[in-house]
Design goal:
This protein has 177 residues and is an alpha+beta fold. 50% of the residues lie in helices and 10% in strands. Strand 1, helix 5 and strand 2 form a beta-alpha-beta unit. The protein is globular, with a radius of gyration of 20 Å. It is found in: Cytoplasm.
Amino acid sequence: MTISKGVVKTSLSHLLVVLSFANHTCSLLGCFLPFSPCFLLYNKTRSPIQKMGSLLSSSIKMSKQELDAALKKAKELASSAPVVVFSKTYCGYCNRVKQLLTQVGATYKVVELDELSDGSQLQSALAHWTGRGTVPNVFMGGKHIGGCDTVVEKHQRNELLPLLQDAAATAKNSAQL
């Protein structure tokens, strides 16, 4: 990789470390500072990493009444089917979870937050409720399970099918893949 007019070569991992540092520092210091890493590296008020992160997470400000209403709706949706996946259509991790649930023969409901007018509010309410602000956000039997890594890990440990069976989301004799 060549930077500016000099012949500075760097590895991709080094660049990712720099960008990660910039993202972390900007989060702590704010990107508006003229000498912040985001300003120096990108001459912008938000780094590309921060912009990408906001696609999968939500941190909008809401009044207590708005949060309570969104929280009520999120809880109703989370318990409206044996398995509920809060998702976004363009999210690869969400697609992986949906693909895995389909492969094991699970019955599940998908709530595509990016297709709902109140999707950002629901995602903020889910973050408040579960501590998880990113998607996918998976519930089984009304109980929070986690995200993609958790679901895949449970599958690899042969723990997913029993959870699905307890939630009445799959037939007792489904084959595990």
